[in-house]
Design a protein that fits this description.
Blueprint lengths: L5 H25 L13 E2 L1 H10 L7 E4 L10 E2 L6 H11 L7 E5 L11 H10 L4 E5 L5 H4 L10
Parallel strand pairs: 1-5, 2-3, 2-4, 4-5
Length: 157
C-alpha cells in the first residue's frame, strides 16, 4: 500500500477541492441564473457598459436596443411596449424579423426587479426561439430610474 505523508494528503485534498470549486464556478457562469431564467450570467449587460457604448460607439457599432416594458427611456432605444402580452410579443417579433441572427440585441424593461418583471422573460425567450446568437439583457437590478436615470446615463428627453 502506498504511504503518504500528511503534507502530501493535504496537498491532494486541496487540489481536489480547488478543481471541484473551479468546475462549479465555470458551470455557474454559463448556466441560467435559475431554472426559470432563459438567459445566462454572461448574457447580462451592466448599465455602465451600455452607457459607455452609447456615448462612445459609432452608430453602426451600436447594438439594437429594445425596450420591452412600459416606456423606452434609454437614448436610442426602440419602444416595443410590454412583452407580457401577445400584442407586445408580435411587435417585438416584427421588429426582429429582418435583423441578422448575429446582430447584438439588448432588451430591457426596467419596471421592477427581474424577479417581478412580467416582460423580460417572454421577450428573451422569443429572441432565443428566433435563434439570435447575441441576445443580451440589460441588468437593471432595481428599476430604470435607480439603475439608469439616477446615474446620469444617456436617456431620452
Amino acid at each position: 500500500m502506498i504511504a503518504f505523508k500528511r503534507t502530501q494528503l493535504i496537498s491532494i485534498l486541496f487540489s481536489l477541492v480547488f478543481m471541484v470549486t473551479l468546475q462549479t464556478t465555470l458551470f455557474a457562469q454559463s448556466a441560467p441564473l435559475t431554472q426559470q431564467e432563459p438567459w445566462t450570467v454572461t448574457q447580462l449587460v451592466a448599465p455602465a457598459d451600455l452607457a459607455r457604448t452609447i456615448e462612445t460607439g459609432a452608430r453602426e457599432q451600436q447594438p439594437l436596443l429594445l425596450s420591452v416594458g412600459p416606456a423606452a427611456m434609454i437614448k436610442g432605444s426602440i419602444d416595443i411596449g410590454p412583452a407580457s402580452d401577445k400584442e407586445g410579443l408580435n411587435k417585438l417579433k416584427a421588429a426582429l424579423e429582418k435583423q441578422p441572427k448575429d446582430r447584438e440585441i439588448i432588451i430591457y424593461c426596467g419596471c421592477c426587479p427581474f424577479a417581478h418583471c412580467p416582460n423580460i422573460r417572454p421577450a428573451f425567450r422569443l429572441l432565443k426561439e428566433m435563434h439570435f446568437t447575441h441576445a443580451r439583457l440589460l441588468n437593471l437590478e432595481h428599476n430604470i430610474r435607480t439603475d439608469w436615470i439616477d446615474k446620469g446615463y444617456p436617456s431620452e428627453n
